[in-house]
Amino acid sequence: MPSTSSAPDVLPAKIRKRLSELLDKVSNNTFAIRMWEDVMTSEDRERLRDKVNSEPVIPRIDHDTYPAPPSGVDEMQDGWPGEILHRCYRRWRADGMWMIAKGIGQPQAIAELAREHGFLGEREYLRLLEAIGGSKVQRQRSKLPEWDRDERTLRFEGTVIRKIRSLTIARNVVAILDAFQNRHWCSRVTTPATLREQGLHDAVYTLNHNLKKLRFHVDSDGCRVRWTRHR
Prior knowledge:
Blueprint: H1 13-26, H2 29-39, H3 42-53, H4 59-62, H5 72-78, H6 83-102, H7 106-116, H8 122-132, H9 135-141, E1 146-148, E2 153-156, E3 159-163, H10 171-182, E4 188-190, H11 193-208, E5 214-218, E6 224-229
Antiparallel strand pairs: 1-2, 2-3, 4-6, 5-6
Helix pairs in contact: 1-7, 2-6, 3-5, 3-6, 6-7, 7-8, 10-11
């Protein structure tokens, strides 16, 4: 397990108990795959790849055969589960992988993953952050895009980069923005089947038109959309 920046044993007993409950929920293989596919960025996955490749070989893990592995590009860029995820998970589980990807301690990693997977509401998440000294996360999150449905504005880095005139007319674009906002702007989201039937590629093209600072992309599977910074 990677080293922690906030040792769990110095936290109040109530906080330790809650973190332990959440750890049981977020550290399994199912959520590791979801984290790899939908939450991590390509940079996160590449950081883990480099880390696991620098580790001493463990034959029972590193020489194990992963069935029908995707290409390295698909696994790193599009998040398809494959050999690197398999090797990382068997060493560190989901919480340890998140610690390495984000350079944070285990309590903070547990809280972040629990929030991403819907096990923590915003208020409890912020209370946990305060208890474990996680203000760093709040500063990082302020750098994420923010879609305000009531104001119909998309903001990024303190700037309004898109104003939606009508939620009804631009309903497919709004559906994409809603999906990202609901998932706290993880790196990619799976879009509703109705949106894919109504023209996902057209909606992404419209969203990207004259958009500064961000770009949205449809994954090769035609089901998921990811966002990236654009300079």
